[in-house]
Structure formats: structure tokens, C-alpha cells
Predict the structure.
Amino acid sequence: MNIGFIGLGVMGASMAGHLLAAGHRLGITTRTASKAQGLLDQGAHWYPTPAALVTDCEVVFTIVGYPQDVEAVYFGSDGLMSALQAGQILVDMTTSSPELAIRIATATEERLALALDAPVSGGDKGAREAALSIMVGGDAKAFETIKPLFDLMGKNIVYQGPAGSGQHCKLCNQIAIASNMLGVCEALAYAKRSGLDPHLVLSSISTGAAGSWSLSNLAPRILDGDFEPGFFIKHFIKDMKLAVESAQSLGFDAPGLSLALKQYQSAAQQGLENAGTQALFRVYTKQED
Amino acid sequence: MNIGFIGLGVMGASMAGHLLAAGHRLGITTRTASKAQGLLDQGAHWYPTPAALVTDCEVVFTIVGYPQDVEAVYFGSDGLMSALQAGQILVDMTTSSPELAIRIATATEERLALALDAPVSGGDKGAREAALSIMVGGDAKAFETIKPLFDLMGKNIVYQGPAGSGQHCKLCNQIAIASNMLGVCEALAYAKRSGLDPHLVLSSISTGAAGSWSLSNLAPRILDGDFEPGFFIKHFIKDMKLAVESAQSLGFDAPGLSLALKQYQSAAQQGLENAGTQALFRVYTKQED
């Protein structure tokens, strides 16, 4: 297929690379030229704007940073909507707001085109290894068309429902992680404070009812003093804000989520916004200094 | 060995049964005679009081409900301490306060005997299948002596350090679970509120970074409307209170734990104290009715 890809960050570059490697024609546009070079060397085609890109494509994938970036790529001057034609498919894989996903779907349908919201989880590693979980909302027929392309990027690909459903599902994912990170960090900090060897504590509690991906994968990094980002605190704060806003608009109160956002904002205020989410631990250990 | 066992609840009865089945002499005492019958039929010996029981034993295990029950069994008139002799070993497997574990150890040592605090996780199922995680604090030599008996009851047996360390470790376990349950219930409630199919959401999020024992094991029960107790809310509230008190005495602030306790107390106020911990979900869905 003729595929466009916008957003060649650490994850996007890997994902676009898988599409290109599978033999598809790949068009790209980036604000930062250097980010494109690797893919151009492998045969990708450069376009100056999203509008120019979409003209040559059957489907365009986007995975950018913040909802305002999505807004600019889709609705800005020279954005995707300005040149969208009937039958084309737009797939936003950014973690963004369900409301914006619905606005994109509505605007797309008005142009007789189709949209999907398809945020992912799995991080850099999942993108590199084509092992992402992809949560898909939007037009069901568009999902069937795009499914073989998702298969090139991910492993656990689930159609969740109409436009916005992919984003809602991703927010569920972040809500579950948010409170669990409080538990992981508080358990480790309590272990240290009470004089236990936290490595021994992990060997007792990691495999039972307290077990979680975060406890198995992030807690050992915390104990090694490794706060390098797998997932940036600043991006997690963005996601939790989206979840809080969406919950509010649904009239739903999620106090664990709100508390986690508050604790992560404290971490950001301590200068940890570019650290990994496991650096939340430092908010708790600061008390001990 | 000559073993005593006090506390023949759902877990204790299984654990004592494993000791008896391995060929040890088992002495028991219960307040409720009916709870003893199964073990008496298998050859256990009945004693009227803890004091009478300890006289015939090399080691006595206890696993009772609340710290005040531990206090009564150890320090009450006709309690274990009243008849304890040099060289005997007392092992409290109740989830109780680290401070009480230290008091028991001190009183035991004054009588030239030895004590361990060895709370467990794994629930009814872990007790039945001899697959408990056992977190042990107290005298290291006593641990070596008792280890073969722990092996009859559990699989993941870790010596955590001096008296109270087993209890501290168990509180770490409960701290990690407490906040995670907020995340699990909030994610599922958000899924329902936003119109998603929560079963589909689980298939997207259970195996990735949001994954946890609770999400894999309790969330499906929530969606089936199964709020039967694997672990009672009233007992989890007890454990979280112990953790909050212990954290306070260490000068450590654990806001996720405090919030989880508050939410579970709301559940208890709704009449859910004898439901399983997954019934926390109802605190969130009540809003939706």
C-alpha cells in the first residue's frame, strides 16, 4: 500500500520502519529533518507538509506528542484534513483525548474518508520488536483494512468500538498503572524505612497477589538507582491529565488517579519530568533524607 | 516433631493438616470445638488451653484473626507465655503488628525460648496447595530449625531479618496490593462508564505494563459479578490499618495506602465487609446507578 507516517520519534521511527521493511511505499514528513534520514536512506519518500503527504497515500499513520500536536497535524493549515480525499484512511496512534478522536472521525467522515484512533502500549521496546498492544477505535471496516498493517507493528491488537474507544481503552491502561505505581513506590519506600532489605522483600512479594508488571520490571530498576526513562514522567502526566479530564466529563470520580497525578506532579516539580516513571520513588524517599 | 497449632480457620486447618500428614505429632486447641474435629479424626491431640498445649510441644504455630487475638493467645492467662519453657519455639503466622512481634520475641527470649514472626500470603488456595509465600522474621537459628516445617506449608519462604521483619514484609505486600486495587477498580469502572466492553479492555491491557495479579485474577471476577471472598474486605482493612499505624510510627507518609484504606472503609460502610476485596469496585459503580 501507499502509506504515510507522521511522527518519527523513538517509537514512530521503529513502527514506520516495520511498514517499509514489509515492502510498502512509505511517505514521511517531519519538522526535524534529521529524524527522517534513516528512513529516507531505506527508501522512504519525503513530503514538505501533511497535506502534501496525504495526497499520495491510501492511509496515513500519526503518532506525535501531545493532543495539540495531533490538532495541528490534522486541522492546521497544510494539515491532513485540508487535502483529505474520499476513501482515504487516517490512523492516529498518539495517546490523545477521546473527544479529539471523535472530532477527527467526524471531520474525516464529512470528507467521505475513514478514521481510526489506535493508541499503543509497550514502549520503545514494543515498537522495536513489533510487539505493541494496539487499542483501536473507529470505523470497523477501516479496522479490517488496516489490520494487516497493525500486525506489522504489534501483537495484541483489539478493536474496542466506535471512534474514541481506542483512546478510552488506553486511558484505562494508564489509570490501572497510575495507582499501581503508588503501591510499588510506597511498598519499596516502606521496606527501606522499616530496615528491611528491599531485594529480599521483592523476592517475597513479586510472585504473589502483590505482583505486577511494574513490581517485576520497574522495582528492580528503582533499587539499582536506575531512573532512566522507559516512559517519561512528563508523558505520563500528560496521559493522566487526559484521563482525569475525560473522567470528569463522564461524571466519574477516580481518586486514586487524581492522587497519582498529584504525586507525579510533585516529582516533576523536583525536576524529574524527564526521568522514567519509576522515579516517583524519589518523592517518597525524599522524606527520608 | 511435637508440634502445636492454634488457629484452625480456613487457612490454619489446611496448614496444620499438612504438618499432620507429614507424620508429625500435632496438638491443637480451639475456642470452637467443631473446627478441631477434622484434625482430631486424623489423629491430632486436643488441649484445653494454649498453656496446656505448649507444655507438650517443641514448636507452636499460631495463625489467628486480629492482633488482639495474638495478644490473648500469647500473653493471656493460660496463654503460651505462661507455660513456655527454655528451647521451645513459637511461630506467629498471623498478619499482625511488627511491634507486637518484637514484644513476643523479647518475652520469649526472656524465657530462653525462641520466636519467629512468619505471616503468609497466598490465601485459602495457597494454604490448601502448600504453596504459600512465607515471610519470616526473628531468630535466624530458629528459622533454620523450622524451615523443613515451613516447606510443608509453602513454596516461597524467605528469611527477612530480625523480629518484626516478617510482619514488615507482609505490610509491604499489602501496601502494594492496596493502591493497585484502586487502579484495577478505577480502570474497570472508567471502562464501563465510557461505554467500552470491559472484557475487551482487559484483553488489551492485562498482559502489558498495566498487568498485575489482581487485574488477571480479580478483574474477571468483578466482571462476572462474583464478589465472594478470596480475601475478606474486613481483614484487608485490618491489614491496611496495621500498615498505616506502622508507617506513622516510622514517620513515613503513604498517601496511596491511606486513600485505599478510606475507600475500603467506604465499602465496609456499604455493607461489604464480608465480601472479597474485589468488591471495592462497587464503591465506584455506586456512582453510576
The radius of gyration of chain A is 20 Å.
